[in-house]
Amino acid sequence: MDKLQRLGVLISWRPQFDPAAMGYSGLAYVRLQLAQGKLERTLDGLSRIPEVIEANAVAGNADLLCRVVARDNAGLEEVLQQIIAVDGVERTSTEVVLSRRLMPRISPLIRKMHDELRR
What we know:
Helices cover 31% and strands 25% of the residues.
């Protein structure tokens, strides 16, 4: 673990939380198309919505890909309305997650890196 930390691979010791255990069982990915030149302003607005738990700049048909949680479908609709109202958001596309089949993980990649470092 010390070596991973020295290499900058291990960047945090913070715990992982399960939003479903907190009552947020709805999960969706929302693609956002933004007005040109408004990325920072849009990110500032998105950061004020607690249910937007991740935002990534992406290449392709969208500018940002956000991971969003909600208590239920009605809650998801409310969150989407908040996202649409953020300055800079021109269009959204949403994919609702039916079930998570492979949880976020890192240990297989760490094992691979460990094997590569041992060579």
